[in-house]
Design a protein that fits this description.
The protein has a domain of 52 residues: Transcription Termination Factor Rho, Rna-binding Domain, Chain A, Domain 1. The chain is an all-alpha fold. It is built from seven helices and no strands. The radius of gyration is 29 Å and the shape is rod-shaped.
Length: 111
């Protein structure tokens, strides 16, 4: 004679919890692999990757000074009462000026 013990069904107390086993689709990998998110693999040919605009402006000012930058670019934020803050504000809203500053950084100082 067989022992007729009922097989346990789903626990009603855990009804609100998602079933993680069925939530995963077999053969489907996550969209982004964490080990593949290394800076050298993301943008290997971009010399400005990871360099902020503030770092660029600060480096250029340290190497050239405001006066020389003002003569090189004829941008008012470099000639009239210059500051990092005013330069960043202008360069973030003026693509042509930002492009010139970034090109100088890459050409002369970018490593």
């Amino acid at each position: 004679m067989r022992d007729e013990t009922p097989t346990p069904g789903p626990d009603p107390a855990k009804a609100d919890e998602p079933d993680t086993a069925s939530a995963q689709v077999p053969g489907l990998e996550p969209a982004v692999q964490p080990d593949k998110l290394k800076p050298d693999k993301l943008q290997p040919n971009n010399p400005l990757h990871g360099v902020t605009l503030e770092m660029i402006v600060t480096t250029l000012v340290a190497n050239y000074g405001w006066e020389k930058l003002g003569k090189m670019f004829r941008i008012r934020c470099f000639t009239k009462d210059p500051s990092i803050k005013s330069s960043l504000r202008f360069l973030r809203t003026t693509p042509w000026a930002r492009e010139k500053v970034e090109k100088l950084y890459v050409r002369d100082l970018g490593s």
